[in-house]
């Protein structure tokens, strides 16, 4: 999280002890699920899966009751901009929507913001709600 390409968006270059607290809090709650992903046996990305309706970003997305949101931080800068993140998002969306049939969509949180997507299509399911400045992530 201290690498410049991650810090620029996340601004969470915390000490390990702070990360332990935050991850334990997330794991104990119902709002967010922290995950690590791997590709070809190597760590790839830190991922947070969350229910959009419980997130402070909910006011910026047209979301349904059971929709998921995703935050992704790819650790190795040489893997950024090569389509790996897009493939990871697609895989995560497919898995989430299969595992939770109540969900009708998902929202990858990106800059610039990406509109909600439907369960059946990688294309936006709705029109963007307009232009906005995404609030900074809270510093837990």
UniProtKB/TrEMBL annotation:
Q: Which Pfam families match?
A: Acetyltransf_8
Name the InterPro entries on file: Acyl_CoA_acyltransferase (IPR016181)
Region listing for Disordered, in residue ranges:
100-140
Against Gene3D superfamilies, the record matches this protein to: 3.40.630.30
Please report the name of this protein according to its UniProt entry. Answer: Acetyltransferase (GNAT) family protein
Whose protein is this, by species? Kribbella orskensis
Give the classification, highest ranks.
Bacteria, Bacillati, Actinomycetota, Actinomycetes, Propionibacteriales
